[in-house]
Design a protein that fits this description.
The complex is a heterodimer of chains A (270) and B (287). Chain A is mainly α and 270 residues long. Chain A is 78% helix and 0% strand. Chain A has eleven helices and no strands. Chain B is globular. The chains are: A mainly alpha (270), B mainly alpha (287). Chains A and B meet through helix 1, helix 3, helix 4, helix 5 and helix 6 of A and helix 1, helix 3, helix 4, helix 5 and helix 7 of B.
């Protein structure tokens, strides 16, 4: 069995190792390693399209993860205060946001937004005093919102789990000691759920940064890193892509370790 | 008293408002939109034209290959994942030295949280002409096609989703009461019957969780069949991308999307039923 487990680990890491190895390849080709070089990192980071896609992805992932962490935490707190039915309805919607395939989320968001814009844009134009009315269009906003949907559901669930295991005695003790609800929240509840919020944020960031299929539908004229990488792969794999993949792999490993560390953190001792 | 009640409800509403708005605008409304689209017609220049017809649904067999590939490769893929994952989860939960356990588990999880796109395209190298086939040609096996086959897609599936299968099985094995294993052995059960009667039995809920998770995600898969199936192994996800972004047949695409969601719901309900029954059986066994 041990040999089998070792083989599975090799299976999991061999492709990753190859990508990293060939990102340092001096030659152009994917099949033979002709010497060590970091030239492709330089080339990748001086490719304006690639850098633009990377910046877009960083901006979108940060914004949607922040929004998701904020709204998700608020929702988790609110759900503690509602009746069984409201809760069940909310849980069903959150479950749907997670379970519905990304390709369907992407498509339906595209379809709905295009219809919405078709109504709103002429309306805006009729109201606007000048000839250049603002136009709603697909782009950053639609990607952020569509990514945030899944992430917000995820944060609500993670924080909700943490809240349900929260020590209620502390909350009671705090109000028995005449702390205002706000003080109780700030000094008892928030520190206890903070690791879950941060972990949720990091997972949301990773998801958004990595998502291809939803962005593919709702990006409009924008390009994210996975969209750029996907398009390049279809033109043929280049060492440049290997270099950017290696950077992204390293960064996501760091983020995951950070998220794990946050989730595993003991609640701060009083 | 009354004032504080109003105050409390207001706070609850404020806390839930952003999430509710989000769920309604970006989940409920879009879903209603594609439901409406799915009974419409394709406008002559592409897109949508209002109508009330079930022609789109009647036309589903036109994409039978995509449905067939998905419905065959998703369960087979999930099963293949399971067969590889179980021994690994078993080893990690019950055999691995204590201090290695968490490190090994982290090593399983890390690939899952790194880009599936980038990990999958690595297999394009390995399976492509200059990878394994070149090595095989060296020893005299010529003209073996690996990439752009159902086998390559299956491999990509196992590779991409393995961690997701290992985790729930690991969790259920980790929680297993080890005294039960001793009791079984003390009562004279052979190792194999202890494994089947106790270990495997008690890990079935984890197996179900993993299996249904992987199944559901595979139903909407797009990247793996595109990169490793090379346009020959179409999934429903590929059909959807094609219909919405290339042929611009939105009503037909919507009908397929709705069908896909319904199939996912059926799979989820079935999985739920089975795991309820499994945990029910377990309860009876333990009394």
């Amino acid at each position: 069995m041990r040999a089998f487990v070792v083989a599975v680990f090799a299976f999991l890491y061999l492709p990753i190792a190859l990508v990293v190895l060939f990102s340092f390849n001096a030659g152009h080709h994917a099949s033979e390693f002709t010497g060590f070089s970091v030239q492709w990192y330089g080339k990748a980071l001086s490719n304006p399209f690639l850098v633009e896609a990377l910046k877009n992805s960083l901006f979108i992932a940060t914004t949607s993860a922040l929004l998701a962490a904020f709204c998700g935490t608020a929702a988790a707190l609110g759900l503690q205060r509602v009746g069984v039915r409201t809760r069940a309805l909310f849980d069903a919607l959150l479950g749907a946001a997670i379970v519905v395939p990304g390709v369907v989320i992407g498509i339906s968001t595209l379809v709905a937004l295009v219809q919405l814009f078709a109504v709103v844009n002429p309306f805006l134009a009729s109201l606007w005093p000048t000839d250049q009315p603002p136009r709603l269009a697909l782009g950053y906003g639609s990607i952020i919102a569509a990514h945030g949907l899944f992430s917000m559901a995820l944060v609500t669930m993670i924080v909700g789990t943490r809240l349900s295991s929260l020590d209620r005695n502390l909350v009671e003790a705090s109000s028995d000691l005449y702390a205002t609800p706000l003080t109780t929240f700030r000094s008892i509840v928030l520190p206890q759920i903070m690791p879950a919020v941060i972990a949720g944020f990091l997972l949301a960031f990773t998801f958004s940064f990595d998502d291809f299929i939803i962005a593919f539908f709702v990006a409009g004229a924008q390009t994210t890193l996975p969209i750029y990488v996907f398009a390049s792969i279809r033109r043929g794999v280049t060492p440049e892509i290997n270099a950017i993949a290696t950077i992204v792999l390293a960064a996501s490993v760091l983020l995951v370790l950070l998220a794990q560390w946050q989730l595993g953190r003991r609640k701060p001792s009083p | 008293m009354r004032g504080s009640l109003v105050h409390k409800n207001l706070l609850t509403a404020l806390l839930l408002a952003p999430a509710t708005l989000w769920l309604v605008v970006f989940l409920v409304l879009p879903f209603v939109a594609i439901a409406i689209f799915s009974v419409g017609e394709r406008a002559p220049e592409g897109g949508y034209q209002a109508a009330l017809t079930f022609a789109q649904y009647a036309n589903l067999p036109a994409r039978a290959t995509a449905f067939w590939n998905t419905m065959v490769l998703a369960p087979i893929g999930a099963l293949a994942c399971l067969l590889v994952a179980y021994p690994v989860a078993y080893y990690l939960a019950l055999r691995a030295p204590q201090r290695w356990r968490l490190i090994l588990l982290a090593l399983i999880v890390i690939p899952f949280w790194t880009s599936l796109l980038m990990r999958t395209y690595a297999w394009m190298y390995i399976l492509g002409g200059r990878g394994i086939p070149a090595l095989l040609a060296y020893v005299g096996i010529e003209d073996l096609r690996l990439i752009n086959t159902p086998g390559a897609v299956l491999l990509g599936i196992v590779y991409g989703y393995l961690p997701l299968m290992i985790l729930p099985i690991y969790v259920s094995l980790e929680r297993l009461d080890r005294r039960l294993l001793e009791a079984s052995a003390d009562l004279g059960a052979a190792p194999l019957s202890t494994f089947i009667g106790v270990t495997l039995r008690l890990s079935l809920p984890g197996v179900m969780t993993g299996f249904s998770l992987v199944m559901i995600l595979l139903l909407g898969e797009y990247l793996i069949p595109t990169l490793l199936g090379g346009g020959k192994v179409f999934f429903i996800g590929n059909a959807l991308v094609d219909l919405f972004l290339q042929s611009r047949n939105w009503p037909f695409g919507s009908a397929i999307a709705i069908t896909l969601v319904l199939v996912s719901v059926v799979v989820l309900i079935a999985a739920n039923r089975i795991s309820t029954r499994l945990s029910g059986a377990r309860r009876v066994d333990l009394i």
